[in-house]
Amino acid sequence: MTSGYMVFWYAGVALLTLHLLLPKSRDKPKSFSLSKAFGYETLRKEAEGAGWNLSSKEFLWIIGLAGALIALIALFTGNYFFIALGLALCFTLPRYIILKVKRNKRTQLLFELPSNLRLWISKMGDFGHVQKALESALPDMEGSTKSMFQVACDKLRIGLPLQRVLEELYAEIRIRKLEDFGVKLLMAQMEGFHRRSLDSLKETVEQISEDIAQVKELEIEAKSKRRQLVIIVAMSWMMPILLSSLSSNNGNLFLDTWYGQIFIVSFATASLFAVGKGDDFLSLNLDEL
Prior knowledge:
Blueprint: H1 3-21, H2 34-37, H3 40-49, H4 56-77, H5 82-127, H6 130-137, H7 144-157, H8 162-173, H9 176-191, H10 195-236, H11 238-245, H12 253-256, H13 258-282
Helix pairs in contact: 1-5, 3-5, 4-5, 5-6, 5-10, 7-8, 8-9, 9-10, 10-13
Coiled coil: 198-228
Organism: Paenibacillus sonchi
Protein name: Type II secretion system F family protein
């Protein structure tokens, strides 16, 4: 196949990939921008849910670096089928990063929660009042849950019912046993903050803490399995490397033939897919605790 045909072949593969990846819209055509083409608005909303204010400049930097890296690989190897992989990576990499940020934020929130709840309980015995106890505990609280408790305290200060404030807190933190804590807190508010009610609240917090300790253990185990997966994928690349050394006629099967180039790009795509999906399968669903 001549070099001229190869250029048209590469361009066709790249355009087909771009056509398949670009979101289809039935709305009237709007002004084109790269960030819109790669789904920036949708990703920005997802990032906001993780507490990350993703700017269009940051988004373009991510897809720009991904595209530049793949372009360098394509130029270095002379395999321009990597352009198709680069286009796909420009779509998937931002989503992967946002997912990792969301998981890290969620993990951090869970690890910080028990200590802040203990602070709140310790002040209840001193003040005998939910709002005053929370106001006193807030300066000593830490982490992302501190802002959530601050919002809850502000709502109590303006006179919102405790049950409504707790329900909104459940929806934001999303831990089932926190609802048990809320039920006991409502009972303590009615019956008084005596030793038995405080001990009951502490017991629920300890149960939450034990669940989170198990999450930590599972995270350590999952991290080890992720490392093993990366090692296996890296070792699998020994096969094309060894086969390329067996090429004859002073040529490299995977660099100098178009079917070898397609195989390498397909192998690279499968490797990235395996690592990405493996990370998904090994990650815990921390939204269902």
